[in-house]
Amino acid sequence: xxxxxxxxxxxIIGMKSNRRVRSIHYFVAFTGFGSFSNNVRHIRxxxxxxxxxxxxxxxxxxxLHMLTAAAGLPFRLAEQVAYGRxxxxxxxxxxxxFIIGHWRSGTTYLHNLMCRDQxxxxxxxxxTMANDLAILGDRAxxxxxxxxxxxxxxxxxxxxxxxxxxxxxxxxxxxxxxxxYHMCCFxxxxxxxxxxxxxxxxxxDDEAAAWRxxxxxxxxxxxxxxxxxxxxxxxxxxxxxxxxxxxxFPDAKFIHIYRNPYDVFMSTRNQYFKTLDITRLQNVSDAxxxxxxxHFYRKMMQHYVEDRKRIPxxxxxxxxxxxxEASPIAQLERIYRLLGLPHFAAARSEFADYVAGxxxxxxxxxxxxxxxxxxxxxxxxxxxxxxxxxxxxxxxAVEGPAPRSKPQPQRDSDPQANTGNTSYTEPRLVTxxxxxx
Length: 437
Prior knowledge:
With 437 residues, the chain is an alpha/beta fold. The protein has helices at residues 2-31, 36-45, 55-89, 107-114, 125-129, 142-148, 169-175, 190-197, 205-225, 242-248, 261-279, 286-307, 321-326, 328-339, 344-357, 370-379, 381-387, and strands at residues 97-100, 120-121, 230-234, 253-258, 316-320, 364-368, 430-434. The protein has a single domain (2-355), classed as 3-Layer(aba) Sandwich (Rossmann fold), CATH 3.40.50.300.
């Protein structure tokens, strides 16, 4: 019995150690290789907002940026000399295709799947981590960086590799102050970042122009690195940036994917908790996080519903996540057909292989309390009507698609849905499934 307790204790310590190592790796992936001056300038500007318990983390972030900046300096200088003029003169032969939709709505899976079509280029994870040396550092720096990132994303167990498609917002947050994702460090200022860099409501003309220049620079780097293939981009923030994107790319095409609001809320909540545990430099309450999720979704999606009228006919398609999950190849064929995209037949086998390889992906599962149901029903009422989802009643069981393998209990399920730390048997619950999206 004593030996069993020792083994059990060792296993628990080992699990905590592994989580700590994964957290450090994710912290490096999130903070390393970016602009040292941008990082230091941002931390200095917000130093008063950093809680005392997180100043060591802030110093570590600055140190990582300094270390990686020094290591990459020869590549940065060489890349500027070799490609600076070419990048400045680069013009896009075809307008990008933008995958949009709120976080946790299936954008990642759709992006990864469509990027199996070799005719598309994209912003890679390595490009977001080390954008200013992404071309010349591909062979020397990328293998080193791969060793320092976690194997899977901590929020949903989606695999992390340097060459996989990634959202360009992660490059923007490393290179400039003009990104909503700075809220990952300063969550109490989340609404300020959202208003300025998602809605552009509090940005002046100079700041908006600076954002545009940096955004175009990130896309040009990807375009050149991907041999000038048409860019396929995924960035949930762009859901509220339709006017800005059309101003830059009048012929851009858009794929909007939407999902059951209850699934979106719980999956986004899980994402916030897990990400902020690793990246934040200040405390924030669970209640404030939940209120922000409700606020951001409502503002973003209502903005999108109004702005989608600006998109020229034939350049927008909307797909339901649940339909896409059930029949991904059929939905891809529909996307290609309605947007007039070529090469579907040639890429079909690649799509099928990717879908087959994802067949055993294990989803998280959540339970919603009546309190949460009421909050979502009230704040996101328009979404149920807009996209035809049924509201849950007090005793209605609403389930997402059944997981393909046995799910693991989540420590951060809705706290109001359980009477104890591990109980999942409270009556009158709404059970949700979460896809890694």
